Structure formats: C-alpha cells, structure tokens
Give the backbone structure.
Amino acid sequence: MISSWSKASIQTRLAIAIPALTVVILGLSFFAVYRGVTAELQSGIEQTLDEEVRHYGNAVVEKLTAESQLEPASKLFVFRQGFDPSSPILAIELRSGNQITNQEEILRRELREEVREGERAPNGRIGASALLNAQPGLSTVSIEDVGSLRVVSEPIFLDGGRIGTFRAALSLDPVKEAQAGLERTFLIVGLLALVASIALAIWIASILTRPLREMADTAAEIGGGDLTKRVSVVEGGEVGILAQSFNQMLDRLQAAFDRERDFVSDASHELRTPLTVLRGQIELLEREGASSKEVGERSGVLLGEISRMNHLVDDMLLLARAESGGMLQKQQISLDPFLEDLERDLPMLGSEAIEVVGRPGGVLDADPDRLEQILRNLVRNAIKYGREPIRITVEGKGRRLIFSVSDSGDGVDEAQLPYLFDRFYRGDQSRNRSAGGSGLGLAITKALVEAHGGKVEAISRPGEGLTVEFSIPGWKAPAGRAGKRGGAAQVS
C-alpha cells in the first residue's frame, strides 16, 4: 500500500488526499454535533423532570401534616397538571400500594402479566412495572408501545418516615428523532461534500501540477538537445519559486554549455596555428638536401611550437581544474611572511619597479600556492601589457582581504573590460600570440579567485592604466589592527 502510494503521481495523491481529509473532517464534525445535540436535548428533558419534582414538592409535600393527606393532594396535583403529548408521565406510588397517575393505561399495561406465574416483584406484588421499578434518581426505562423514557424517582418523607414515591417520566423520542434527523442530514451533506471535494481536488491538483508537468516536458525537450526551452510560469508561491529556480538552472546550464563550446572552438583555433607551423617545418625538413644548419634551425622552431602547445594544454587543464573548485588546499596563511616572500620573488618576473603597499597582518584562510599564482598572473599581465611602475595594494575590510594590482600604462577601453577574463580574449593588436602567453592567464585568475569564494573585477580609465582588484574571504585581523592600511615597501 505504501509502495503504491509513493509511486502515485502528485495529482493522484492530491485527488485522494483532499476528499479523504473532507471525510475525516465531516466525520469528526458529525460526531461532535451528534453528541452535543443529544446531550443538550437530554439535559433539557432532565431539567424539565427536575422542575416537576420541585413543583410537586412545593405544591404537595411541603404542605403535608398527615399521611392521609397525601393521596387527595396528589390526585389534585395530577388533575391540575392536565395532559398533552408533551407533558411528563406522573406516577405517585403510596405506601399502601395505590398508584396515582395521569396515564392509567400505561401503568395497567405495565402491571399486566409481566412476571411468570408465582414470581413476585421486589415490592411483594404480582406484576412489576418498569416505570414503578425505576431506580432512585435519574434513570432510563423502556416500555413496550411507549418506547424509552427518562425517569426521575424521588421518595416522599413525612416526619422521618417514607410514605411514598414520586416519579415523573418523559419520552426520549425527541432525542431519537433529532439523532435520526442529524444522521440523514449529515449523510446527504456528506455525500454532496464528498462529490464536491473530489471535483475540487481534481481541479486544484490539475492547477498545482501544471507547472510541474510543464517542467517535465521542458526537461524532456532539453534532454533532446534544445537548451533554449524555458518554463513559462507566472504563479507565485513555492511553485513559482521552483519554476524560477528551474529556469535559472537552465540559464546556468546553457551558459556552461556555451562556455564549453566556445572553449573547444577557441582551443582548436589556438592549437591550429602551432600545428600548422609544425607541419610546415616538418615538410621543409623532408626535402632532400637540407643542410645541418637548416635542420638545426627547423628543429628549434619545432621545439618552440611544441613547448607553446604544452604550455597551452597545461593552462587549459589548470583552468578546468580551477573552475571545478577541486584543486584548492586551504590553510591559515600568516600574511606578514607571505607578503615578505612575495616582495622578494617579484623581481624575478622581469621588473624591478614593483611596489607593495599595505601590511594588514593577521591570517587568511586560503591556498597559499594558488594565491601566489593569482598575484603572479596579474603582475605578469601588468608587465606585458602595461608600463612600470606596478603597484600591489593589500587591505583588510571586515572578514575579507582585498588585493589590487595596478600598472601605469594607457589602460583598457571601457567596452573591453567585461571581456578581459574570458578565455583566449585579446582586446587589441598588442595582445596577440607574438607577445607570448596562452590567453588564459586572466581566466585562470578569475577561476582561482571564485574557487576561494571571492570576486574579481577590472577597473580602467584612459591614460590611468589598468587595475585588477580581487577579494578573498576568511581574513582574521590581528588585535588592534583590523582593517588598517600599512606603509609602502619598495621592491628593488
């Protein structure tokens, strides 16, 4: 059963769950109303009987001075009461055994042949009436042709002695009729509500699951290769959020596929040039009569192109690993020693005019090798395409450490800034293959920064050079120095 339910569609589950819930609610409502009406009607009957006892006590018992007065006073009380179908049945039993009642026929029928021959009732007389044998206080008796009665039985005392018993009874038929009416009403209302809830459940389930069905159809079309499909859902709430998240996922998926397609296209284009050179050089070497000097020159060209291809492939693999986020080995980096080592090693990149500004101190949760690689890539890019001097600024803000690398060149056109971190992007003729590099340096830098959970951006104004700024989270400032900028250190 559980397995079948778990395999059912959401629409089927809703179409079953809503009517089932309706049935449960109607059942509980019926039970509550049924018990409430029964208790209220029965309480009304009992209040009427209690009032009858008090009325008899005030009119008869309290005025008695002798036992002989009981019978005429009781007859007068019963006569004055009169009788109609809703009046209580009165039965006043005297110590002598006589009964005074407003329903002679009922008592006679009760006393007639109700016990077997020779069997005596508890009071010693032949024939025991269910009404006259009712227990003291409130009780319920059943009389043939009359039905169930609610009876109150109270003893009559005079001078400390019991001289009789007063009994009053009311039929429980109104209670049974009300119960039967409730049963019929709830049966009709329940059936109508069940039919309406089934129809409503099917309608609601269809509305709620329509976006899900659309998403399933869209996913099927995407599986067929069409990444342009989107879910057109305008509903709010959880379904709308799910649809928006689904569309955003498709956007990211399409962007990833586009990047991969562009990457393969760009990589193929980048590899085509060295492969063409290799082919041409090998064809020249195959000519007969090539001198040893020519062979040596051609071999040098071949080795250079092979080295360039190796470097390109290494950068492509590094970029793929960086974008997957699985290559970082974070640890607590003590910033002062890290920046000191960086200052010492930067001149080896080909420039003596590199200035490092800022000593925020503290520690940074990052991969030291990859952080150094980020800075080296940016410095190489500044040396290659900008002008000296080059400045590296380090500053702490909140829980982040902010690095910026600036050159003193002509800068980059504002329209090119959004594309600087794209793979193989070269904005002008100065950024071509002859300048060296694979065209992946800034793309690798961005991937490594984002793998750390940081952000990177390029800022440039004409004639003011290019500044690349990136932030890395996880900085813990030393006590008393949080976020303060240190002095400048000249690398020479």
